[in-house]
Amino acid sequence: MKIGPTYIKIGEAVLYPLEELDAWDRKNIVICRGSRV
Q: What pTM was computed for the model?
């Protein structure tokens, strides 16, 4: 099951294409209500 954006793995380094990362970020935004103090 895929959860994050697509990536390329080279050795131990994991590389994410910037466009995919930005798109995934925008799609998975969580809006929190401000806490009342």
A: 0.48
